[in-house]
Amino acid sequence: SLTSEELDLEFLSVPNPVVTSNTTIAISGDLLIEAEGEDIIWYGDAEGTDVLGTGNSINLNIMDSQSIYMQSSQSFGGALQEGGKPDFAGGGGLPSTGGGSTFNVWEEFTLLSVRVNALTPGERTITLVDENENVLETFTGNMDGVDTIELNWVIPVGENFQLLCEENNLFRNNSGVSYPYAIGDVGELHTSTWGGQYYYFFYDWQIQKNEMICYSDLVEVGITVGINEINQVSGIEIFPNPSTDFVTLSLNLTEDLDLSIEVLNSLGQKVIEKTLGTVPTGSHRETINVSELATGSYTIVVSNQGRKNTYSIVVD
Asked: Per-residue pLDDT tens for 158-212?
């Protein structure tokens, strides 16, 4: 049977996002949903194909109870790394015949740039070939002295690639060479066409590892249009109704409750908001100034920790 060297595996996971806002509204209208998580994507379907928006909040116009879905995403990788022989130190000069340094790749990366030493100015052509001498990439440009060549080539996984200079007239080392030379943590140069004492042409490789995006589970967010009522409220009276200036809300509590009051217009928009704090057990009256509201129908919403009671009023 065949065996391989021991592998170190790293499992990447992205935590699920968590809703941090109320997802219940008394009547149809706009609803702002907020959540904590990394690079959240919001969807209108359970398959994650209908993208509604991105970010840690989304504002929706809700007509009926429904579900939407959210998912966190996170990028891994994309690191900048270096490789190859870092400098021109050691003996060397122009080669008498063609050749190149040979390298293996075990994780795809982008070769951003290399440095060369053109001892005489002129045009050179750089090629990337695979072990079967198929040309994968090519670049032609003028070079003079020590020069940084921008390539931005995607290098695939494989063995015995070579970077070549077609003119064979760039500096190469014939001493001071010590293979292997790492290419970040994604590959290595391990020899040359003419053996381990030569290093050909291309120094100080600048590379970028591939970026990988991982996703959390799709999390369902249930949106409810309607009321989860406050059972401890009874004996509701609203007067006068209709009103032109002030409305009194009278209610009876069977236990102490933290209450707030909102007045919504016919579009579900909040036009008045009052925080009552802790209201003690027993009868309570609250006066609401509606004198600056336009004529029409409104909804009074009494809230306690996500539970709501709603009452209709008319402003003349």
From this structure: 999 999 999 999 999 999 999 999 999 999 999 999 999 999 999 999 999 998 8
Mean pLDDT on 223-239: 80
Rg (CA), the chain: 35
d(CA 219, CA 14): 12
* Token pair listed for 269: 């928009």
CB-based contact 134:158 (threshold 8 Å): no
The pTM assigned to this predicted structure is: 0.54
Nearest Cα to 202, choosing from 263, 124, 286, 107?
124
Buried-state track 179-209, b at ≥16 Cβ within 10 A, e below 16: bebebbebbbbebbeeeebbbbbbbbbbbbb
Q: Tell me how far CA of residue 293 lies from CA of 172, 238, 268, in angstroms.
A: 84, 17, 14
- Give the three-state DSSP class for 113: strand
Q: Which residues pair with 36 in a beta bridge?
A: 18
Listed residue (21, 39, 42, 31) closest to 220, CA to CA: 42
CA atoms of 105 and 234, how far apart (whole Å): 74
Q: How far apart are CA 281 and CA 291, in angstroms?
A: 30
Cis peptide before 17 (omega within 30 of 0): no
Give the residue from 123, 105, 113, 141 showing the smallest Cα distance to 203. Answer: 113
> How many angstroms separate the Cα of 87 from the Cα of each of 115, 173, 177?
9, 10, 11
Instruction: Find out whether the peptide bond into 95 is cis, omega within 30 degrees of 0.
Output: no
Output DSSP code: residue 266: T
